[in-house]
Amino acid sequence: MFGDSLIAAHLLAIDLFLYVVQVVTPEDPTTPPPWYVAVPLTLGVVVPVGFRRKYPVAAAYATLLFGVPHSILELGIASLFTTCISVYTLVAYVSRRQGLLYVLANAVVTGVQAWLQYSAQMVILLIVVALMFALCWVLGEFVGARRAYHAAVEQRLALLEVERDHQARMAVAAERARIARELHDVVAHAVSVIVVQADGAAYAVRTQPELAERAVRTISATGREALTELRRLLGVLRSEDARDDLTPQPGAESLAELAERVRAVGLPVHLEITGAVDDLPAGVGLGVYRIVQEALTNTLKHAGPGTRAVVRVERSGDRVELEICDDGHQAVRPLVGVSGGNGLIGMRERALVFGGSLDAGPRPEGGWRVLASLPLTAE
User: What is the dihedral sign for C-alpha 353, 328, 264, 186?
Assistant: First the structure.
């Protein structure tokens, strides 16, 4: 805005200087118009230049309107230069269509004026005006293309920033879901074992104190294991470098130990492992362990007394197939596995993370079955 005002001020000063020279020169054959005509016309030509960026179309046609009498009275050079500036402005800041309409309007005005006022030099005048308009049009095209390029770059950077923020939010949500799965698997299994053992100890404390004592020891050991797992998870969350945590994660090779712990709680578990599962990828091995752990935890909570469970793990080719079933006789179980729906949801999420699948539901002959298939490599 300041630069445009400066241009307008310079053109005004040049035209006023030329007008004063014309007035004070007695041998000049032309008689200048009075100042109260010349000065307003000159102002009308140059003032719109100061507003050409904010109101480009209105400023251009205001310049044309005042430029016609200004050029007819030969009051200076402002009408020609402001017209060229208007052509450049319309092409660069508005559109080619507006620029073309403005050039056509000026061509008509200039052609009529040259024919009536400068017939002897008409061709030369029209060539000069055409060259100046062409130069201003080319400059407008160049500046307009550069402005469009910068606008596209800014838009692309804004989109990239939005995409980056979206990816960051997705990463945070995925990490929160992973932490929630780990916490649920650890806490739900431990609490389920503790509840079952506590109920058994309450029944046996008077009639079978040895059995109650064994249940209390199981509660104590399970609680310590859960605390250890929770401390490990909290240590990972607090540490900036996950490599600082060297506690081994359970995997498929720990299934025998898991089955033994569940048997100690009072749920008979038959474990069948086909194929080598000790060398599974760490993530897949942890997923297998957690799915089996959650399925047995749900059996403990929902299947009722006298239930038996069977765990089958088979490595065939590049996949690991899991089947965990029981013969529980409780009529209806919640489809979500645990209250709140976190159990079955967590198992499905673990399977989907590796591109696998998981199905769970009642068996026709009674009981519950969980089927899962995990690929060893990402699909």
Answer: positive
- Averaged over successive runs of 10 residues, the pLDDT of the chain (379 residues) comes to 80 84 70 83 88 88 87 82 89 87 88 78 82 90 88 86 84 77 72 78 80 82 78 68 56 87 85 87 85 87 83 90 85 41 76 87 88 81
Summarised one tens digit per residue, pLDDT across range 35-52 is: 888 888 888 888 888 888
Q: Specify whether the backbone of 91 is left (phi greater than 0), alpha (psi in -120 to 50) or beta.
A: alpha
CB 258 within 8 A of CB 267: no
pLDDT at 240: 58
**Cβ–Cβ under 8 Å, residues 7 and 85:** yes
- What pLDDT is attached to residue 376? 83
- DSSP track, 181-217: HHHHHHHHHHHHHHHHHHHHHHHHTTT-HHHHHHHHH
Which pLDDT does position 236 carry in this prediction? Answer: 62
SS3 44: helix
Asked whether 60 and 86 are in contact (CB, 8 A), the reply is yes
Full DSSP string of 280-313: S-HHHHHHHHHHHHHHHHHHHHHS-TT--EEEEE
Closest CA to 276 of 310, 322, 313: 313
Task: Write the burial class of residue 367 (CB in 10 Å: 0-12 exposed, 13-18 middle, 19+ buried).
Answer: buried
C-beta separation of 252 from 280 below 8 A: yes
Q: What CATH number should be reported for the domain whose range is 251-379? A: 3.30.565.10
Phi-psi region of 341 (alpha: psi -120 to 50; beta: other; left: phi over 0): left
Cβ–Cβ < 8 Å for 374, 320: yes
pLDDT of residue 338: 37
Determine the length of the chain.
Answer: 379
Which pair of tokens denotes residue 116?
A: 């009536």
Helix axes of 122-204 and 78-89: crossing angle, nearest 10 degrees: 30
- Provide the pLDDT for residue 271: 92
Question: Of 279, 377, 360, which Cα lies nearest the Cα of 322?
Answer: 360
Q: Which DSSP string do the residues of 91-149 spell out, in sequence order?
A: IIII-HHHHHHHHHHHHHHHHHHHHHH-STTHHHHHHHHHHHHHHHHHHHHHHHHHHHH
